[in-house]
Amino acid sequence: MTRRGGGVAGRPADNGRVVHRYGADPSQFGELSLPDGKPLGTVVVIHGGFWRARYDLSLGRPLAADLAGRGYAAWNLEYRRALAGGGWPGTFEDVAAGIDLLASLPVDTGRVVVVGHSAGGHLAAWAVGRGKLPAGAPGANPKVAVTGVVSQAGVLALADCARQRVGDTAALDLMGGGPDEMPAEYRLADPIAAVPPSAPVLCLHSRGDDNVPYSYSERYVAAATAAGGQARLIELRGDHFTLIDPATPDWAAVIAALPGLLAG
Predict the structure, then answer these.
(1) DSSP states of the chain as a string?
(2) Tens-digit pLDDT profile for residues 81-112
(3) Where do the BD-FAE-like domain residues begin and end (predicted)?
(4) What is the CATH number for 109?
(5) How many domains does the chain contain in total?
(6) Does the pLDDT of residue 18 top 80, yes or no?
C-alpha cells in the first residue's frame, strides 16, 4: 500500500466504508464514509466505552452511515484503549493523529466537527483544545483545526471521574493513576481544565443518564462560558445510549446542530 501524508492509502470495507490507517497498531485506523455528491462538511465520530478495549468503533458505524446518508463525510475513528496499548499518552496521541490524518484524505478540513459519546465525548472536547497545548504535550500542534464539538453525555470532568470512580477504575486505567498522583497529566487531559474551548462545544445529556453524571456537562458549560468560551447544554429525555441510536430524537439533536457548528 502507498503512504500518503503520513497515513496509509485506504482499502475498501463493507457498506462503502474505506479504512485508512494512521499507525501500525491494529487499533490505529478509521473508517471513512462519503456521501453521494459534494460533502456538506466533515464529521469525526469518536466512540465511547469508558476507554476500554472491549468497546470499539462498531458503536459509531450506525452514526457514520446516517451522517453519510445526510450528505456529510463521516470519519469513524478507532484508537488504542486503556490497558491495551493506549491510556496516557497513547490514546490521546491516537485521537490527535487520527484527526490530523484528515489532511491527507479527500475531505474538507476547513469544516470539521467532532462528535463523541461518553468517553468519546471526553476525547472530542479534549481535541478542540489541542491548539492550546504546550509544545511537546501529546496532541500539540494540530494539523487539522476543529470547527465545533458535540459531546454526547461526555466525561468532561476527568479528575472527578477518577475520584468518584464513575465507571469503576475507568479514568484511573486511562491515566495510569489518580489526579493527586498525576496533576500535570490531568491538566493536559481533562477538558474542564482547558477552558475556554477554541471552538463552540454543544453538550447533549439526559438527567436520566445512569452511566455519566449530568452534572459533568453542567459544570463544563459553566466553566467554559465563565472563561469566555462558547458552550451550551441541551437536556435530553433519553438515557445514555439513546444518544447513539439514529432513530431517536436524541440523535436528531446532533443532526440539527451540525450546520451551525460547521459554519464556525
Answers:
(1) --EETTEEEEEE-GGG-EEEESSSSTT-EEEEE--SSS-S-EEEEE--STTBTT--GGGGHHHHHHHHHTT-EEEEE--PPBTTT-STTHHHHHHHHHHHGGGGSSS-TTSEEEEEETHHHHHHHHHTTGGGSPTTSTT-S-SS---EEEEES----HHHHHHHTTTTTHHHHHHTS-TTT-HHHHHHH-GGGGPSPSS-EEEEEETT-SSS-HHHHHHHHHHHHHTT--EEEEEESS-TTGGG-TTSHHHHHHHHHHHHHHT-
(2) 999 999 999 999 999 999 999 999 999 999 99
(3) 38-219
(4) 3.40.50.1820
(5) 1
(6) yes
